[in-house]
Amino acid sequence: MATNVTITDIAKELNTTPATVSRALNNHSSISEETRARVWEVAKRLNYRPNSIATSLRSGKSHLIGVIIPSAKINFFGSVVHGIESLASEHGYNVLIYQTNESREHEKKGIQAFLNARVDGILVSMAKETHDYKHFLEARDSGTPIVFFDRANEDLDIASVVIDDYKGAYMATEHLIQQGYKRIAHIAGPQHIRLFNNRLRGYLGALQANNITIDSSLIYTGNISIEAGKTAIEHFLSLPNPPDAVFSVEDFTALGALKALKEHQILIPEQFGVIGFANEEFGEHTTPSLSTLDQQTVLMGEAAFTLLQEQINMKTSTQMKAKKVVLDPIPVYRQSSTRH
């Protein structure tokens, strides 16, 4: 049977009206149980599929949410999406995913694609290239709820779920200090993104709290990638007084650092300590295993969906005060930084 069966076809089969069929399919109280059962039996036999667009127009909801992520290659984002999808499914929502590949132009296209699909709301982790945030504000002002996760901009008055990046960076740096490392470097991320700036500040805060002089030559600001980690280590090792440990802004950059140190036959952690941030899945399988900070990714996804659903259920979402949920990082100290 063709899949474009309509309620009119069901009505003809039962010798009743399309209105009666429609009410039966929507479990209207005016329709008897017997009639409802007959309608559903015929609907299943004819392979009837509801018109989701028509249904969403009537209800004002599509039961779709859009999720924009910078990269599907990074396990962190996949894990957050898992948290989003599990809770969204419980509440009857389907999830559409758009990958920006860290491009602002792709991000804009993703927002527009979701608006065209009439999603009920959008969850976003911003691209590294994004400096202009007009597309987020336009979407929000059009009445579509938006919530940021992980990468957020607090100046936009848009709800967000983030990790306490300052605290995590402070913990990572202090851990290296406690392990006896004397000159601790930092591989930083693009500073226009708030979370990377907070991680730099956490690193600096831990040094100051432990009366360690800040040396700007031990801060390498670049991209976030394996290659950036390798380049940073080459820079650090070329210094007259090189560091003996590094706190990397995230795990892929930390992996690059591990690779470069091995190429120079530097023993980890005996001669050089390394710690990352994010708890990517590969970290426990590297040699040595990578110390890191876990970002409670599934909880982040669930919290982001919960904030979004609150806005969807409020007719005046644009007037709602933007809530901010801050999650605690969990230290995962492995072989790459543990000397004692």
From TrEMBL:
<keyword id="KW-0805">Transcription regulation</keyword>
<dbReference type="InterPro" id="IPR028082">
    <property type="entry name" value="Peripla_BP_I"/>
</dbReference>
<protein>
    <submittedName>
        <fullName>Transcriptional regulator, LacI family</fullName>
    </submittedName>
</protein>
<dbReference type="InterPro" id="IPR000843">
    <property type="entry name" value="HTH_LacI"/>
</dbReference>
<dbReference type="InterPro" id="IPR010982">
    <property type="entry name" value="Lambda_DNA-bd_dom_sf"/>
</dbReference>
<feature type="domain" description="HTH lacI-type">
    <location>
        <begin position="5"/>
        <end position="59"/>
    </location>
</feature>
<dbReference type="Pfam" id="PF00356">
    <property type="entry name" value="LacI"/>
</dbReference>
<keyword id="KW-0804">Transcription</keyword>
<dbReference type="Pfam" id="PF00532">
    <property type="entry name" value="Peripla_BP_1"/>
</dbReference>
<dbReference type="GO" id="GO:0000976">
    <property type="term" value="F:transcription cis-regulatory region binding"/>
</dbReference>
<dbReference type="InterPro" id="IPR001761">
    <property type="entry name" value="Peripla_BP/Lac1_sug-bd_dom"/>
</dbReference>
<dbReference type="GO" id="GO:0003700">
    <property type="term" value="F:DNA-binding transcription factor activity"/>
</dbReference>
<keyword id="KW-0238">DNA-binding</keyword>
